[in-house]
Amino acid sequence: MEPTLSNGSTAPVGGLKNSNLAQAWLVLLLALCFGGALAAVQVNLSSVIASNKLNETLKKVPELVWGAQTGDMKVSADPSVVISPGTLTVPKTGKTSVYSLYRVSRDDRLVGWVVKAGGQGYAGKIELLLGLDPDAQKILGLFVLEQKETPGLGNKITVADWRNQFIGKKSQPPLQVVKGKGGGAGVQTIDAVTGATISSRAVTGIVNRTIGDVQGKLTPEFIHILERQP
Amino acid sequence: MANLPTTTERFIQGILPENPVYRQLLGLCPTLAVTNGLQPALTMAAAVGLVLLSANIIVSLIRNLLKPHLRIVVFTLTIATFVTIVDRLLAAYMYPMSKTLGPYIPLIIVNCIIICRCEVCASKQSVVTAAADAVGQALGFGLALCSIAAIRELLGAGMLAGIPVMPSAWPAWVIMVLPPGAFLTFGLLMALVNWVGAARSNNAGKGD
Lengths: 230, 208
Description:
The complex is a heterodimer.
Chain A: H1 20-66, H2 68-73, E1 81-91, E2 96-106, E3 109-120, E4 125-132, E5 139-146, H3 160-163, E6 176-178, E7 189-191, H4 197-214, E8 223-225
Chain B: H1 7-15, H2 28-33, H3 38-61, H4 71-93, H5 95-101, H6 112-122, H7 127-157, E1 159-160, E2 163-164, H8 174-177, H9 179-203
Antiparallel strand pairs in B: 1-2
């Protein structure tokens, strides 16, 4: 079967036939051409892809501070709203944690913070955006950026109805996950998603830990705001 | 060996008689993994189709230069290039879908359908035949993916392509959008395709 492949070609006879280069020139040439094509694609698209990633986060930021209704319509068109990305470095015993965060202000007055937080879920990493008021005393909003939880069960953590439970909750004492119906009347409790207690606990745990980390640290001493022109 | 199928035969064969999924059982990883909705299934089919077409054309163009023992290297190199281009295009212009499909787009590199078509058809036949073969196989793959995805999404979420179509009282069968639903649907559909095929070849008087 194999010899029929090169039927059409009449390979040069003689010493050249055995040289490695004669064997491999096509592979090398193709590798060069394809490498060039990929470089061109990368040069043209890398900025678009990077801005896609940034926009996904930026688009959500107003909603996390003002709530879903007002966040979308009014704020995005309002030039007095400034969202500045930055990083927050939290020194801890043994190591430091670095959070990405966004400072949201309107008319030069601080309205709140959006912190990117991550942790282990049931089936992979969960990445959240957490909206906090200026002193990190109250939760203003929660959004799930990335999750790989079980479809149909754990991935309900992305549904607005469930996430909205967090809105208005205080930072202290830490939030508790409550299983089953009727138990969720408490002030600092979160109803677990039915059949996905682990996912619910994971999200709540990330929220509690993040608040614990950032509280009292939202000062210029720990925050580095990146310069960015709107 | 002497009589390779003609251009038209190649095109027709890919759609049903030699359907890559139901008859050749190739490319099953994406078939099972991304068929929990019509939209990801269609995107995957389009991505595979694009890579298949490009790889078949390139391989067919250089078929007379191929060295038998280096041909797999050349196939893989060609396929990997086009998969990377498709992956970047998706990330740039269909970002949410690119996130949904996750690792399954880069995994097209090891999709056996494409390397199989390069070997069976493109490395032996003209560009036109290779292109027709690619389109036929891509349509067959898309048909298989969409048939599985439509059933899974309808029963598992009560929707088609993200649009609710079932009455709101429909209790979504969550298992259908989970991995077991993929195996169930695929197994039943393949049994159906084989049953219909067997019945037809019996009528014709000769099995294949």
